[in-house]
Amino acid sequence: MKVRPYLYLTRIDKPIGTLLLFYPCAWSITMASYALQLPATVPLTYISLFGLGAIVMRGAGCTINDMWDKNLDKSVARTKERPLARGDITSQQAFAFLGIQLTAGLGVLLQLNWYSILLGASSLSVVTIYPLMKRLTHWPQAVLGLAFNWGAMLGWSAVTGTVDWAVCLPLYAGGVTWTLVYDSIYAHQDKIDDVKVGIRSTALLFGDQTRPILAGLSASSLSLVTYAGYLNAHGEPFYMGVGLATAQLIRVLYQTDFEHRASCWKGFVGCGWAGFWIWMGALADYTILLSLAPS
User: Fold this and answer.
1) Cβ-based burial of 16 (10 A; exposed 0-12, middle 13-18, buried ≥19)
2) What confidence tens digit (pLDDT) does each residue in 169-185 have?
3) Which pTM was predicted?
4) Where are the alpha helices (DSSP H) in 137-209?
5) What is the pLDDT of residue 164?
6) CATH assignment of the domain containing 189
7) Amino acid 80: pLDDT
8) By residue range, what is the domain housing residue 97?
9) Exposed (0-12), middle (13-18) or buried (19+): which is 209, by Cβ within 10 Å?
């Protein structure tokens, strides 16, 4: 069996998607560990598990997407080289591979408590319907946000056995609006092809007003994350992280040319750094807390 087509099916050559799925999990795990003043072994364990889960489930999401879009991909220049569209993998092989991916994801999920297992399983319906939404609504990016940021709740429940909704709901909402920013930028790469094949997106919906709308969404996202940090009693390092994330999103929105494919890809990847800096702020806060704890 040739391995390379299956690797390309998972987009393993483009790790930014995995990181965008992972960061909300990392925020939540680190913030929960900070709130309960847990030893470092706890976040290390769960960050490792969720990192593996992000790789597996992002790959599964790509497989589902390509199965939905197999025939569409053949007619679009940017996607006709995908393994299913090229015929390197059959639909039956892709379905079997998806079964392996989901089984691996279930294996990771079963390492968690039962509350988290049920919470994690409940996200699969959103993951499955996302590829269909771009045919039905101009807001598929919002549906992607609902799926990609589930870890903002799941990470907390994995650590604590429940969800602190007061903290996690604004954190989740902040992640969803962040997804609207980065995936709208991504969608601008494809808007010409999307019009031809009848695909809808926020890029087409926002049009010439994309920059101010994304600026408003960025402000909303960062405000919600800041509010979650406030409710979790975070200190200055957390807010410094949010400040760096703010500077990064400002830079992305200022520099991105929404009519230029390469610029949109660079902006999309650049948005990922905002998620990284939020995590680094939370992690710095947690690290300082551990260093000040009595031995």
Assistant:
1) middle
2) 999 999 999 999 999 99
3) 0.91
4) 140-148, 151-160, 165-188, 191-197, 202-206
5) 96
6) 1.10.357.140
7) 67
8) 4-292
9) exposed
